[in-house]
Amino acid sequence: MTTHQFKIGQVVQAKRTSHSLPCGPFRIIRLLPAAADGVPLYCIKGENESAERIVEQHQIEARTL
Q1: Distance between CA atoms of 17 and 23, rounded to whole angstroms?
Q2: 45: left (phi over 0), alpha (psi -120 to 50) or beta
Q3: Is the separation of the CB atoms in 44 and 12 below 8 Å?
Q4: Angle at 49 between CA 4 and CA 41, to 5 degrees
Q5: How far is CA 25 from CA 3, 36, 44, in A?
Q6: Does the chain have fewer CB atoms within 10 Å around its N or its C terminus?
C-alpha cells in the first residue's frame, strides 16, 4: 500500500495526463483511505467551486507557480 504524498491544506493541480479534472487549483480537504488497489485517495475542492471531488493520488501533483 502506498502512503499519502500530499497533506491537508496543500494546493495541488491536475496532472496533464488527467483529462477528467479541470486544471485547478485544488486544496486537499481530507485524506481518505486507499482504494481497493492500494492507491491513496483525497477529497479536494477547487478554489472557485462549491463541490468537493474524490481523486486518486496519480491524478494530481503539487501546484507549481
Answers
A1: 11
A2: beta
A3: yes
A4: 20
A5: 22, 27, 10
A6: C
Count CB neighbours of 54 within 10 A: 12
Instruction: Quote the CA–CA distance of 50 and 59 in Å, as a whole number.
Output: 20
Residue ranges per domain, the chain? Answer: 11-62
Name the pTM for this structure: 0.88
- Whether 56 and 20 have beta carbons less than 8 Å apart is answered as no
Residues above pLDDT 70, as percent of the chain:
98
pLDDT band for position 1 (50/70/90)? low
